[in-house]
Amino acid sequence: MMIDLWLLFKWIFLVTMIIFLIFFVFVMIILRIIRRYHKFPIPAFATRLIDNPWRRFIQKPKVIAERMHLEAGMIVVEIGPGKGSYTKAVAKKVIPNGKVYALDIQESVIESLKKRIEKEEISNIIPIVGDAYNFPFEDKSIDRVFANTCLPEIPDPIRVLRDCNRILKPDGLVSLCEILPDPDYPRRKTEIRWAEESGFEIKEKFGNFFSYQLNFTKKSNNK
Ligand SMILES: C[S@@+](CC[C@H](N)C(=O)[O-])C[C@H]1O[C@@H](n2cnc3c(N)ncnc32)[C@H](O)[C@@H]1O
Question: Has this prediction a pTM greater than 0.85?
Answer without folding.
Answer: yes
